[in-house]
Amino acid sequence: MGLFGFGKKEKDKMKDGLEKTRTGFWGNILNTLTGSKIDDDLYDELEEQLILADVGGDTSHAAITSRELGIAAVIGIQNPTALQALDGLDVTVDGTRGRVYRGLLPLHEVGGEMDVEALPKTKTRVGLVLADIGQALFLSRLRNVSDFEVGLLRAEFMLGNVGVHPAALEAFDNGDLERLVQKKVEELDSKLRKTIREQLDAGLVSLDLRLREHVGNITGFAEELEKLGKKDDLRNPDEIMAVYRRMREVEKLLDEYTERAARFYSTLETSADLAEHVRLIMGYENELMALTGDSPEVKARRAAIDKEISDQVSYAALNPAVQETLRQITALREDVGARCGLAKEIAALRSIPGEIGTLIRARGHKNGHDHYVQTLSQGLALFAMAFYGKPIVYRTTDFKTNEYRNLLGGNLFEEHEDNPMLGYRGVSRDIHDWEIEAFKLARSAYGACNLQLMLPFVRTLEQARAMRGYLDTVHNLRSGEDGLKIILMSELPSNAILARQFIQEFDGFSIGSNDMTQMVLATDRDNSSLSHIYDEEDPAVVWAILVTIFSGQKYGKKVGFCGQGVANSEVLRGLVAISGITSASVVPDTYYRTKQDFAAVEALNIPASGLGKWLAGQHQAKL
Fold first, then answer.
1. Beta-carbon neighbour count of residue 422 at 10 Å?
2. Which of 72, 143, 300, 489 is buried deepest, with most CB atoms within 10 A?
3. CA separation (Å) from 183 to 178, 535, 594?
4. Bridge partners of residue 51, in order along the sequence
5. Does the pTM of the predicted model rise above 0.90?
6. How many CB atoms lie within 10 A of CB 35?
């Protein structure tokens, strides 16, 4: 994928990369990235680097990322041993032929300037799929091409510049972030305790917690017994008997407290929190649980208990035996936590509020809201400026849960999904209000009226209608006002099956061939084992594309095409051209060739009525 590049992997970067991509790691500028997939928090890191991916195909995440950022890449190597052998070496990558060479080889310059005047005229508008603002500014001269447009502007790369999960920014602004972090830390701490308990039971680790002795040190009974035993100034039998009775009372109390503490033994054995030890051993836990409501009496008793616990913690903290016990428990937690990864995860969680605050201040913003809205709106405005006067279709965020998790603070809000590709994504999340606010700001304050809005992964008609209603009533975004058009990303079988109903809810369709092929054929495009099934020329996919195009034409609505299918497949290119699609958008490195290829197809002058015959001929030739 792409042209040439070269780089060197660094061993000291490997550990961080493995955290991000399972089998991948990256270096600095001009260093190599190796991995089975590309997560969205790496987008900023990928500028001018290489991608060597062990698995994946032409439409895998790694391949799409490499094309849209203009990075040389070799995808689907399927030889992890060979990749590891390149560790620490300078390499040269020929992304066009899929070859990786040892050493820095002399590079032949390819590409160069495009003669805009020499571009052929086509009935089908050929546009671009863009994500990177630097690339957009470089290609801005294409706005002089009469039929040019940006058929797909991805949100995800710009949100990578925001760098923080929007819900985390909201929580930061309303003061709720610390509570959410603490709640998540407690969840992970519970997992860590369970893991420690299991390893203690299995004999993999050990801890010598002498419960009765520990209870005596926490409560002060041990110290009292020691003092009573050392009394040597007793002058008569009554004094001796009084001391003896007191010792028996303390011993009995110690037995009672130890028996109560035994019920919490697994917690005491895995907790390094002295206050928790005091609360459980001194018997406050049950009383605190019983204190419900907000009456003055309840509040007063809670405050009194907190004071008693605090006083007892201050006392117990001075005891060397207690200090040693907590040190051993802490060491055990650190050891098990490091080996299972929970310690690092907990530390990362605790650092989130500070990191978000530092990022916001470093960017010169007042709060999380300003950081998100200003960063996104300014990015949109730059794209609109680069192609002023030409339509730019902005697709709202289509992050999947695993990609959202990789944003700072994302692990507070995103659950693990078995198959994120089919999970909580697209408009099922609802479009974040701040994203719409940024879009409106770009169109109004920055004059980016050439921005259009596209909704991704709309599963049902109910979702379509609900989102259109929300945009109308809450954000005053209506089709036709100030030249705004609201478009559906037609990428699901339901969009094609109910194309006539969906088209009536929108100003047009934009066919997303990658997801449409994946969903129609039920294949994971990131799974190399299914790459032989993933075929955009499959009759079922062709039907979905054609019914979408013809439905749009019937209702007089624009239908575009986004994806590399029209650049790579003669069948798909001829299919959409002959059927009379309005536009087709491809990544920049195939724009010039695709423009010429469309001109060649259109020169055949095949009418729409001859499409079936032409398709039959193409498939027969392939067979």
1. 14
2. 489
3. 9, 46, 53
4. 33, 73
5. no
6. 25
